[in-house]
Design brief:
The chain is an alpha/beta fold. It is built from 9 helices and 8 strands. The structure holds N~2~-sulfamoyl-L-arginine and zinc ion (ZN).
Length: about 300
């Protein structure tokens, strides 16, 4: 197997080995949870990061829901590394890991991710068959049970935004849903990591209506984007998802929000379209560093607003 690197894109085998190594090398802070299998039968891993004694609030983060957005899994790996390597030397990280738990899903759409490495670099969806024998894959960010298959979604299997045959029809979706529903007592924030566009989005995406705490979400976004941009002056915009990017239904963040997780966000990482999904490896480090600042800002907010 290949050597893992935080400043390169890693294939799934390398990432899977890495999840195992993190849990064994940092057993005081990290444990690996299997949440079920993908359509093709691969185990999906969530890394639980935090002091094991803590019963406090939790933040869930999904990466790699869209196969071709390689910077997303790279960020989840970077963020875990950041937490474990800074725990003993950085008061902010120590405080976060003492008082809250991060559940980090480094690759949600594993089958699709592998397909982008082996066959089609621009693949987006998962790899399950559909009612059309010529077309594979459901868009997992359209498959959650929130206003399912309505605006910004299609019931046509050959499209990139196919919603699937029913709400949470896909194994990958079901596994995330079951994990979140099993941890609703602790999960206070849900963060979904995508690329590209340089945006920070908050609910709703399925409707133009404002979310009940949209003012609060806007304030948090403003602070998180200020942190992010402070490092390299990267330009980000933020706002309600439907009007800031475009309407979507059946997305993970809106679903989590409607389960009562009042801090739900989607990041669209670099760039703004120059290289798009093919973001060069030379930008992994800077992208991950700036995004880490934004996530830490959100985490500190969530921690100080949970009882
Ligand atoms: O279309 C998507 O799922 C996201 N854009 S991407 O280019 N990464 O595919 C946008 C999602 C916006 N919707 C929500 N935040 N719910
Ligand atoms: Zn995406």
């Amino acid at each position: 197997s290949k050597k893992h690197s935080y400043i390169k894109y890693n294939d799934w085998e390398t990432i899977a080995d890495w999840t195992s190594n993190m849990a064994t090398k940092h057993s005081d802070l990290v444990s690996r949870i299997e949440i079920g299998n993908t359509y093709e039968g691969r185990p999906m891993y969530v890394l639980k990061v935090g002091q094991s004694s803590t019963a406090g609030p939790a933040i869930f983060m999904d990466c790699g829901i869209h196969a071709r957005e390689w910077i997303s899994p790279a960020f989840c790996q970077w963020f875990v590394k950041e937490l474990v390597s800074r725990y003993s030397k950085d008061e902010e990280v120590k405080n976060l890991l003492t008082n809250l738990t991060f559940y980090i899903l480094p690759v949600l759409n594993i089958d699709g991710y592998i397909y982008t490495w082996t066959t089609d670099r621009m693949w987006r969806k998962n790899r399950s068959p559909t009612s059309d024998s010529n077309c594979f894959g459901t868009d997992l960010n359209r498959n959650f049970n929130i206003s399912w298959c309505e605006i910004g979604s299609a019931d046509i299997p050959c499209t990139e935004i196919y919603c699937g045959k029913s709400p949470a029809s896909e194994e990958e979706t079901k596994n995330v849903v079951n994990f979140i529903l099993g941890h609703l007592d602790s999960v206070r924030a849900y963060i979904s990591i995508h690329a590209y566009s340089q945006m920070l989005l908050y609910p709703y995406s399925y409707t133009d209506e404002l979310a009940p705490n949209s003012q609060e979400l806007d304030e948090i976004s403003k602070g998180a984007v200020a942190e992010l941009s402070s490092l390299y002056k990267t330009k980000y915009v933020y706002g309600p998802s439907a009007s800031t990017i475009y309407p979507t239904s059946g997305s993970s963040d809106d679903w989590a929000y409607t389960q009562g997780i009042r801090y739900a966000f989607t990041f669209e990482l670099r760039d703004r379209g120059k290289r798009g999904f093919l973001l060069p490896e030379s930008q992994i480090r800077a992208t991950c560093k700036e995004t880490t600042l934004a996530i830490k800002y959100i985490a500190n907010y969530v921690l100080s607003h949970s009882s």
